[in-house]
Design goal:
The complex is a heterodimer of chains A (about 325) and B (about 350). Chain A is built from twelve helices and seven strands. Chain A is α/β, with parallel strands linked by helices and about 325 residues long. The model of chain A has no long low-confidence stretch (mean pLDDT about 95). In chain B, strand 13, helix 11 and strand 14 form a beta-alpha-beta unit. In chain B, helix 4 runs parallel beside helix 5 and helix 9 packs across helix 13. The chains are: A alpha/beta (about 325), B alpha/beta (about 350). Chains A and B meet through helix 5 and helix 6 of A and helix 4, helix 5 and helix 6 of B.
């Protein structure tokens, strides 16, 4: 199905929100204003955006340690996100989760996850609940190429297939598991080959093309909604920054040339070129969208910086739900 | 449905009454009654459907509730627990079964890194009304991978509740409390107690988590025991009373997380001597935690070091000839009690 103009605007807006948010987060991290680890999503924006535009609001998402993009794409509040990344009281998790555990259950974003492969079983559980209730809500598991090597992922995918649960598995193959290239740790070239082993359909999609991702996600979601079980999408993509932190070039495990090659396929630049050349959206409108989002991001940074550190009295709250 | 909102029938612990059920029967009855009461409760795990669980814990449920609510899963412990977590976050009230407590280790990421921490990591925004049921305990020649008591590992993780029922009455009431609790709970049945019988009320009732039970009152020494060790301790106490006039006070914490330290300390202050009995290995076991807490709270009351009667530090052996010397029994418990009392130990 050809995406509508509204869908195109939505794809562009979500990709740009992720990009500008992540770049601001990277600057704060460099300036030592952000504690802990930072796994930036920059480069992969077309995947989260394409899938989340195709999703309904009630559809759930389980995410990864590189999860900011998924929450932004699901409609996350940038101010609460920025405050959380800075460990502040007004953050999404009141400063208790940080980058790797950011979530918004009201948006059905069931959390980033610090454990590789840890999120897929949870998405399967949410999918189970949807089927149990007899609704047509779908859960989406985002995961990296590396997580398909871990047992929990295999268990979850097999279970979803065996129980015919409404789950969409979205593999973001960015070619590296931390600092190790994919070809060193799996003996197949396409991660999607694994789908056949679960008896579920698998498709490869250009993960730098938001429209292609959107279309593949629409199909997978429709299958799940119709009660036909899970689909596996492999989106071929790339992360510009290091596994952790803000370095992009000069690394031992990948060449600068490779990074530059992928950047030529940048999802946002390619998208903007395509829609302007087709006369669908004007360059002025794209620029104005960018300015609006930059203002939103700037406000988010200010919100985060002005938010207080959590009160020490909250250290021991939220460990358990108190039972009456 | 939330237990707190609707205050379902049978919230108060009932009088045990006259009717007898087996330990397993009490569990099974709790499942039937809970599932009839709340459509959001389902059970998932290996062989829990038509087979009714390998030990019969879930017998008959599939016939009444169908495979929608009694879900046979792959042998995949991480995904079983993950299924429960995701379904709980999405608002259901799952019961997921891990056939043997040893298999908890297979699912430990989902239990300890996910279920236990979600609420805290998410700033309190998640509710996780998940119950994990499992079967622990040695003494059946099930050997090193099907016999362990791993409660110390679980209760070390903030966010989990760990429940070790010692009788049919407690098992039913504690299971009800686990399922109604909005936190991840792990309830550990003891495999050697499946056929044990005791009075169990027919109605649904709840025994609150974190409240110890003084099983036997006595003035001379406190014996803290849980799970099957309560039964063995009671045998030891009976014999010591009859033969030597020693009166043991047996405190069954019922849940090891949260631990009712208050009741344990109060008893220690009364008797001035205390031993802890568990099936798990002694090193790093609950006994060490209880001993530490008692010395912190009641040091001046103690007339002897806190005694620990537990399994030795080895994997669990297969042969009855070895396993019989591994798991604490009434005889070893008696010897430990006498030692802490400074009395001569027969045969020592």
């Amino acid at each position: 199905m050809e995406p509508s103009l509204e869908t195109l605007r939505d794809l562009h807006r979500r990709m740009l929100r992720i990009r500008l948010f992540e770049e601001a987060a990277g600057r704060l991290f460099e300036g030592n204003k952000m504690p802990g680890f930072l796994h930036l999503y920059v480069g992969q924006e077309a995947v989260a955006s394409g899938v989340c535009v195709a999703m309904r609001e009630d559809d759930q998402v389980s995410s990864t340690h590189r999860g900011h993009g998924h929450l932004v794409a699901k409609g996350g509040d940038l101010s609460k996100m920025m405050a959380e990344l800075m460990g502040k009281a007004d953050g999404y998790c009141n400063g208790k989760g940080g980058s790797m555990h950011i979530c918004d259950l009201d948006l059905n974003m069931l959390g980033a996850n610090g454990i590789v492969g840890g999120g897929a079983p949870i998405a399967v559980g949410a999918g189970f609940a949807n089927k149990y209730r007899g609704n047509d809500t779908v859960s989406v598991a985002f995961f990296g190429d590396g997580s398909t090597n871990i047992g929990a992922f295999h268990e979850a995918t097999n279970m979803a297939a065996a129980l015919q649960l409404p789950v969409l598995f979205v593999c973001e193959n960015n070619e590296y598991g931390e600092y190790t290239p994919r070809h060193k740790v799996m003996a197949i070239n396409d991660v999607v080959d694994r789908a056949a082993g679960y008896g579920i359909p698998g498709v490869i999609v250009d993960g730098m093309d938001a429209i292609a991702v959107y279309e593949a996600a629409m199909e997978g979601l429709a299958r799940a909604r119709a009660g036909d079980g899970p689909t596996f999408i492999e989106a071929k993509t790339y992360r510009y920054y290091n596994h952790h932190g803000v370095q992009t070039l000069g690394m031992k495990y990948r060449t600068d040339e490779e990074v530059e090659e992928w950047k030529k396929k940048d999802c946002i630049e390619a998208f903007e070129k395509r829609v302007t050349e087709a006369g669908l959206i004007t360059a002025d409108e794209l620029a104005s969208t960018r300015a609006d989002i930059q203002a939103e991001v700037d406000a988010a940074v200010e919100f985060g910086e002005n938010s207080p550190m959590p009160d020490v009295s909250t250290l021991l709250t939220d460990v358990y739900t108190e039972m009456a | 449905m939330s237990a707190t909102e609707t205050a379902p029938a049978g919230t108060a612990a009932a009088d045990p009454g006259e009717r007898e059920l087996t330990y397993l029967g009490a569990f099974n009855e709790a499942m039937f009654q809970l599932m009839r009461q709340d459509e959001d409760i389902f059970v998932a795990g290996e062989d829990v459907g038509v087979q009714g669980g390998v030990f019969g814990s879930f017998k008959g449920l599939a016939e009444e509730f169908g495979d929608r609510r009694c879900v046979d899963t792959p042998i995949a412990e991480q995904a079983i627990v993950g299924l429960g977590i995701g379904a709980a976050v999405a608002g259901l009230r799952p019961v997921v079964d891990l056939m043997f407590m040893d298999f908890v280790m297979v699912a430990m990421d989902q239990i300890a890194n996910q279920a236990a921490k979600l609420k805290y990591m998410f700033g309190g925004k998640a509710e996780l009304p998940l119950t994990i049921t499992t079967n622990g305990g040695a003494g059946l020649s099930a050997a090193a991978q099907h016999s362990q008591s791993l409660e110390a590992m679980l209760c070390h993780v903030p966010g989990l509740k760990v429940v070790m029922p010692s009788s049919p009455y407690d098992l039913k009431g504690l299971m009800v409390a686990c399922v109604r609790d909005n936190n991840p709970t792990i309830i550990v049945k003891n495999k050697r107690m499946f056929g044990s019988t005791g009075p169990v009320p027919e109605e649904l009732y709840e025994i609150p988590l974190g409240v110890a039970n003084v099983v036997r009152e006595g003035a001379d020494i406190t014996v803290v025991a849980y799970g099957r060790m309560v039964e063995e301790s009671a045998k030891a106490a009976k014999r010591l009373s009859e033969e030597q006039g020693i009166e043991c006070e047996i405190v069954d914490p019922r849940t090891v997380q949260p631990l009712d330290t208050e009741t344990i300390v109060a008893s220690a202050k009364k008797t001035n001597r205390i031993v802890v009995v568990h099936e798990a290995v002694r090193f790093g076991g609950l006994g060490a935690e209880i001993a530490a807490q008692v010395q912190e709270e009641a040091f001046d009351y103690l007339d002897a070091p806190v005694g620990r009667i537990a399994a030795p530090f080895s994997p669990i052996p297969f042969s009855p000839g070895l396993e019989g010397h591994y798991v604490p029994n009434a005889k070893r418990i008696s010897a430990g009690i006498l030692e802490t009392l400074g009395r001569p130990v027969p045969g020592a």
